[in-house]
Amino acid sequence: MVKQGVVPDETNKPFFDAANEGRLVVQSCTNSDRLYFPPRPASEICGEGESVVWKEVSGRGTIYNYCVVYDCPVASLKEDLPFNLAVIMLDEDPGILMYSHLPGVPPDEVPVGAAVRVIFEETANGQKVPEWVLVD
Q1: Cα–Cα distance between 66 and 101 in angstroms, integer?
Q2: What digits encode the pLDDT tens for the residues 21-49?
Q3: Alpha-carbon distance 38 to 69, whole Å?
Q4: Are 83 and 69 contacting, i.e. CB atoms less than 8 angstroms apart?
Q5: For the CA atoms of 119, 123, 126, 130, what is the dihedral angle to 10 degrees?
Q6: Which tens digits make up the pLDDT trace of 77-108?
Q7: If you placed Cys at 3, which of 23, 101, 111, 123 could pair as Cys (CB 3.0 to 4.6 Å)?
Q8: How far is the C-alpha of 60 from the C-alpha of 57, rounded, in Å?
């Protein structure tokens, strides 16, 4: 599945730079030591921009839920219909949710509750993005 290209902005550039290096990072508030995602210019905890740091996480998680996409307005994804869209909870913080197509898992055969690990796939413009695969 060729993914639509991603163009990082000032707020999420560190996330996508880490993805290009094969690392998964999320933001953390140094005042509270809490993790959060998606990226924001200021801490969602205390509201301060200077308390935001990027923290590498394990890249492990659990499938929380999923749906199957049967119709999609993105032209580059139409040839892959239907496909899974799974919600992944990070091991470090179950409040952090990320999404995945679950490469290698047939549509509607998603094992909710199964362990997954992150991989990084290249998009149409060369930017890498996290995807998740089942842990053997």
Answers
A1: 9
A2: 999 999 999 998 899 999 999 987 788 88
A3: 22
A4: yes
A5: -30
A6: 888 899 999 999 999 999 999 999 999 999 99
A7: 123
A8: 8
